[in-house]
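Milestone M4 deliverable, item 7.
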Amino acid sequence: MKPVVALDLSLFAVPSTAESSSEVQDILSRIQSWASVIDRQNCTTFATLSDAVDTLRSANCFPATHNVRALLQLHDLDSVFSANDINTRLFSILQKAQRLSEIIGFEVVELDASDISGTDITKSPDLEILKSLACLLASIALADRSDLIRVTTAFPSDQTVEIKASVSFLERHGNIEQCEASVEGQVRVVGWPCDYLESLEADVVWEHADDAVQLHLAISLEAAKTHGLSTGELPLKGVPQFCVGSEFLPSLRSHGALSKGTLANVVRTKCSQILLSKSQAGPKSFNESRSDDKAEAFRVHLSKDHEAFRLMYWARPDGSTEFANIGVKQELLICQGDFRSHAAARYS
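Output delivered:
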């Protein structure tokens, strides 16, 4: 599962939670940034509640162009932002975002009671917008993989928001189900796209990874954490280019190095070490090259006990690294893979 950015409807609401020109400018600038990132990334899923547009309409907060223009004029920002541009970006985000229920399997649609701490909800432009935030937070808190989900909201918030609620109804597969559940949990909040990657943990991303892009993301986060690098964008600045080969994920799966497997942390850490501290990793050459692109084959130790695992990689002619596979010492084979079919996380 990819990490998720859940977009609270307060971001789209006009009138908004903002009370001053600077607050309006901050929200609109964030909208511009998030809209740009969605088109320039492949490692994150963006989501909203299924009833997003209906809720905005019923709350009289629908971000139609004339409403956006009135907001800009009210705060003397019509020379700073274009109403048409903001409207286009808002609807671009709404159209490209998935339904949260498609990702976690359900959505909370009705609460008997709720209490939210860590955010200033007194600025809600309408009760429906506040209710939507509560349902969003409750849905995430109930989800199996809530540690991979971040919320971005226009409400002034701490880095972590706490939700306590009594759930009465869920929507699941298009059906409304009665549900008597109490939920209490914390949800991480990010304000700007540049803060998002830094909020993710490498081990959590690796644990839930189900494709090569997520493995690349986890290795990038590990390298950034270990060496104190900025995670504002991917590929990381200051890290040699690398990619995940076509056979890397299958080999991790077959040897129990995914999820919370015994070798999971070792493999991720060793990949990071190969990129930034190659001499410490102690690579040994296979003395062979790949015919298609002339990449040279190397291996490093992962463990010396039991089966003595090795990590194999290709050093490509352009200076980049392609992680190929892991295997036991007795086999010591590097997967050729398809040098034209490799994965790398993008986020900018």
